[in-house]
Amino acid sequence: MSRPFFFLFSVYFGTYTTANCIDTLHAAKHDLPTSTVSSTTTKFIGTTIVSTSLCVYKDGIFARAYGSSLPRTPVPMISYALFTFRDAITVFASFNLPSLLAPRLTHLSMSSFPVLEHFLGSETRSLKMAQMLCPALCQFVTTPIHLLGLGLHNRRQRIGIRERIKMIRRDVFVATPLRMVRIVPAFGIGNVVNVSLRSSFMPAYELPKV
């Protein structure tokens, strides 16, 4: 197993395992169906901590390995902070926001946009749609943060904020679609598949309360 693949696998395996465990504990505690997808603060905090820790560590290694000008220089703390903020937004959009939006999307399709009922006519359909769209759409917010974090590592010479904004504007229109293409399989399709597999693999009997 190559090192880049190992680090990517670790990020997604750790993130999904944490989300599934928290969902299962939440279902057991509140006597809910085992397939319940929660949107609790505990899930956000736990998944964010695991995902961000793994992802920031991975990005630090990748930045040192593939950085254009300073491949052996430690990644500055400001870059780590920006990567952490970026990942917190991504985690919320991938694991918490879809289950919050699903009921609203279903109600909206049935009351105001009947043409969308085929896609959003039930909370299950709405949840899958939200799981696909939310991680992709959040890239409009997270990509500039990602580019700023990389820029602060790769270009450490004194550059004014206007110049850095100009560089982000130059790269963001290319980087955003590329990051969408990357995130949809990972946290869009991956999340839909994860929820379906978890629902089918969970035992049919009632979970003990915790």
TrEMBL record:
TM segment ranges: none
Keyword annotations: Signal
Signal peptide region: 1-19
The keyword Signal is assigned to this record: yes
GO cellular component: mitochondrion
Name of the protein described by the UniProt record: Sequence orphan
Lineage: Eukaryota, Fungi, Dikarya, Ascomycota, Pezizomycotina
